[in-house]
Design brief:
The protein is α+β, with helices and mostly antiparallel strands. The protein has helices at residues 14-22, 59-74, 105-122; strands at 2-8, 30-37, 48-55, 79-85, 87-89, 94-102, 125-131, 135-137. α2 packs antiparallel against α3 (105-122). The N and C termini lie far apart (36 Å).
């Protein structure tokens, strides 16, 4: 089983990551992937020019690794991948990429959903939206 989590300031090439993830899979009957994309507007409709994800070096990586390991333990998956951005992200760019491989589709879907729920609520990040006139922490 391969369980991987990465933190990067570089753009995430989701298609390339999915191809790399799937290369050599022979015991998985299902692969599920998810991309979280930076929105260009706030929940109230105001324009967002950029999103900044600040992190605490070491602690953030450990939180991603813990979430990945918990997902691998909880679900019948053969491989699992989490890639999360930090730094400044433009609207339309991928913030997070998750992929899971399992012998059966249900476990792959459930594992990906579980990972995203945990990432949204527990990964150690501080988010700031840069608007036209001001920035605000969210």
């Amino acid at each position: 089983m391969a369980v991987e989590s990465r933190l990067t300031q570089d753009p995430i090439a989701a298609e390339a990551e999915l191809s790399r993830f799937m290369a050599g899979l022979t015991d998985a009957g299902a692969v599920v992937s998810f991309c979280g994309i930076a929105r260009g507007a706030t929940r109230s409709g105001e324009k967002v020019e950029a999103l900044h994800l600040d992190h605490y070096p070491g602690m953030t990586e450990r939180s991603l690794e813990s979430i990945a390991q918990d997902g691998a333990t909880r679900f019948d998956v053969r491989d699992l991948l989490i890639i999360h951005r930090c730094g400044t992200i433009q609207p339309g760019e991928v913030i997070v990429f998750v992929a899971t491989a399992s012998p059966h589709r249900r476990a792959a879907f459930e594992a990906a959903d579980y990972l995203m729920d945990r990432l949204k609520t527990e990964a150690v990040f501080w988010k700031k939206e840069q608007g036209v006139d001001a920035a605000r922490w969210i």
